[in-house]
Amino acid sequence: MLVNQFLILAAVLFCIGVYGVIARRNAVMVLMSIELILNSVNLNLIAFALRNGSADGHVFALYIIAVAAAEVGVGLALVLLVYRNRKSIGLEELSEMKG
Amino acid sequence: MSSPLLAAVSWTVPTVDYHGLAPEIVVALGLCVVMLVDLFLAERSKWLLASLSGFTLLGAFIPVLTLALDDGGARAMFDGRYVIDDFSLILKGLFLLAGYVVVLLSTTYIEEGEYYQGEYWVLMLSSILGMMMMTSSRDLISVFVALEFLSIPAYMLAAWRKRDAKSNEAGVKYFLLGVFASAVMLYGMSLLYGVTNSTLLSDIGASISGELTAVRIIAIVFVIVGFAFKVSAVPFHTWAPDTYEGAPTPVTAFLSVASKAAGFVALVTVLYVAVPEGSDVWQPLVWVLAVLTMTVGNVLALRQTNIVRMLAYSSISQGGFILMPLAVAAEGGAGGAALRSVVTYLIVYAATNLGMFAVILTVSRKTRSGEISSFGGLFGYAPALGVVMTFFLGSLAGIPPLGGWIGKFSAFQAVLEAGTGWAYAIAVIGAVNSVVAFGYYGNVMREIWMRPVPDANTMPIRTPAQLVLALAITTISTLALGVLPGVALHFGDLAIFAGAFAG
Amino acid sequence: MSPFLRSYLTVVWFGLAAFLLGGLLLWLASLLRPVKPNPEKVLAYESGVNPVGEGWSQSQIRYYVFALLFVVFDVEAVFLFPWATQLERYGSFGLIEMGVFVAVLLLGLVYAWRKGVLRWV
Questions:
Q1: Which of B80, B198, B83, B178 is nearest to B135 (CA)?
Q2: Is the CB of C64 inside 8 Å of chain A's CB atoms?
Q3: What is the structure's pLDDT at A56?
Q4: What does the pLDDT read at residue B482?
């Protein structure tokens, strides 16, 4: 079975996501990178479930999808809040507090 | 192509232990009721919601008590995925009481600000419900769902003051780092599931033994890193000071006590039940995290001038002390002592830190300032508050006979019980840090007792009834836990998790 | 080639066929039609209205609430499908559980309604 290919794809997606979170300076882009990581996790879970022949991975993936939707809802609302107050969603400008 | 998976799984109706679930059910119903009442309530009677939330939390405390008095042993549901044992009951009680105190702290704060009311209580209750679920979760999926359940409302609470740039910033930083951390943790969890073919923590614990392959090491490290964000361990702490400073003060109290405790609960369950055999990987990791956390937290706390920010760093360094016994938990017979010390420390720390925030809230109602210098001469015009605040500072510093020392004592006891070179080394570092911590706690005490009042405004402080009650609860608990250390240690004296650290 | 990959071969064939057919028709049309461009003709076509302003414009912010509501309710529906495929097996227990689940979701809808989010402004 083609489990390894899926795992490699997931690992690549995970790395792209982590790079995006670290390198991007735009809140929405960071959110999208986090979604990428979550999807790599889902891919992992489905591939393992396929190999192991158990349904747990599918269930886990369903929960991750649902929770990710809730997270994005909150995240976009927060980004919107910042945009309304500052007219910008650049993360480097979020530096009200230091030290 | 139809899936053969579902056909193969036999299914029987699960037995649901409604007595065991009663605390969660009460809170869940309460939060639905608060939400509905808020929608159909006139603006002037919104104060009802605060009392309703408070009563919900106290009401949920009753089944916790009846469960604790019931000698039936641990109750397990869904093949051991949801367990109600002594550990979970004590922490459920802690979360409910801490939540009640936070409700008391929030009441006047929310009423006097012009921000939305009903949602605040709904979010607070859902976060507490998530924490209660966390204490009972013994499965990767339920640990993850509980973790998100307690975090997502907390992100919104941190950004509560919608038009305040600082509060926005607090919410966004907390959100982005929190979600990133849980994504990394999930990647680790998916690998754990892959190598063990189970999401049940005890099954994972049974499968992970013997040689640690690279995949297992990565899985364990990623999961721990995810929790390290949650408990704001250095170097994953960067969100904590900004979020604590920017969030509304009662929310800061909630985050620094309850949310942090929930992170430790998750960490402890995963370490003890799922990967006890992987201790070669996580012991050094937790050791480094603990040392960095207490040292960096302390050093940075020394230079703060804002009291909430100082408490943020102090809470980071206290987190290091809670991590300390976990760093040697798998050595010899230290597992039980480490668990006891974590639970004891969390209880004592919750009482003390909530009290500290109660004092800050009360004083800042008059001074309208968060600077440490605004506490100058507090004893002169508000002697009771001055004395109580000194108690809390002393307890945080670990001076006997105040509550804090019993937490530190049990942590050091657990470390010394392990008795290895690494254990002695971390004990010495911890001792040095406890002394350094006197620096900034003592500095605030000096302001209270010896400095003049900054603006010569010595009007007495009017304390609302809710804050008086919160101060009374926290002061009495702090004193009682210190004077009667047996009580705190008794709470921590748990039957160790089944299957953890055999031998 | 594994049978798993082979099942994807169908997709590849269909994709190729779609591209070839589309390309063929466009090529045939370009052979037959006369080409006489003038300024009016090369204007972007916008439902018969003369185009104004930039192609990139900001959409109304008020749509975002609907988007959020859609995302949340849409994704929660994912839990209904596994239950629906095994309806008889889960029996009354499953029915009650799903009833509770849907009731909690409805609470969210009631909230949105009372907050006036569903009204078009």
A1: B83
A2: yes
A3: 87
A4: 81
> Is C119 among the domain residues?
no
A65: which chain C residues are within 8 Å (Cβ-Cβ)? 75, 78
Assess if residue B383 is contained within a domain: yes
Q: What is the mean pLDDT of residues B43-61?
A: 86
Query: By the CB < 8 Å criterion, does C68 face chain A?
Result: yes
Measured in angstroms, the CA of A26 and the nearest CA of chain B are apart by: 11
Determine contact: C76 vs chain A, CB below 8 A.
yes
Q: Contact, B477 vs B351, CB < 8 A? A: yes
Report CB contact under 8 Å: A77, C68. yes
Looking at residue B77, the DSSP 8-state letter turns out to be E
What are the strands, taking DSSP E only, across B354-435? Answer: none
Question: How many domains would you assign to chain B?
Answer: 1
Average pLDDT of chain C is 82
pLDDT at B1: 37
The C-alpha of B11 sits at a distance from chain C's nearest C-alpha, in angstroms, of 8
The answer to whether B182 and B151 have CB atoms below 8 angstroms apart is: yes
Question: Quick one: pLDDT band at residue B189, thresholds 50, 70, 90?
Answer: very high
Contact between residue B388 and residue B468 where contact means Cβ atoms under 8 Å apart: no
CA–CA distance, B401 with B480 (Å, rounded to integer) = 9
Asked if C2 has any chain A CB less than 8 Å from its own CB, the reply is: yes
Residue type, position B354, single letter = L
User: What does the mean pLDDT of chain B come to?
Assistant: 85
- Count of domains observed in chain C: 1
Neighbours of C50 (CB within 10 A): 8
Nearest by CB to C79, which of A62, A70, A77? A62
Q: What is the ipTM of this complex?
A: 0.94
CB < 8 Å from A in window 298-327 of B = 300, 303-304, 309
Beta bridge mates, B306: B371
Reply yes or no on domain A3-90 having CATH 1.10.287.3510. yes
Q: Does the CB of C3 have a partner CB in chain A at under 8 Å?
A: no
- For residue C59, what is the domain's CATH number? 1.20.58.1610
Residue B502 banded pLDDT, cuts 50, 70, 90: very low
Which of B181, B184, B179, B160 minimizes the C-alpha distance to B171?
Answer: B160
At residue A82, does pLDDT exceed 90?
A: no
Cβ atoms of A90 and B163 within 8 Å: the answer is: no
Question: Looking at beta carbons, which residues of chain B come within 8 Å of A97?
Answer: 166, 169-170, 241-242, 245-246, 309
Q: For B441-482, how does the pLDDT look when each residue is reduced to its tens digit (9 = 90+)?
A: 888 888 888 888 777 777 777 888 888 888 889 888 888 888
> How many CB atoms neighbour CB A17 within 10 A?
25
Residue C60 has a pLDDT of: 63
Flag whether residue C71 sits within 8 Å of chain A, measured between CB atoms: yes
Nearest to B223 by CA among B291, B171, B174, B269: B269
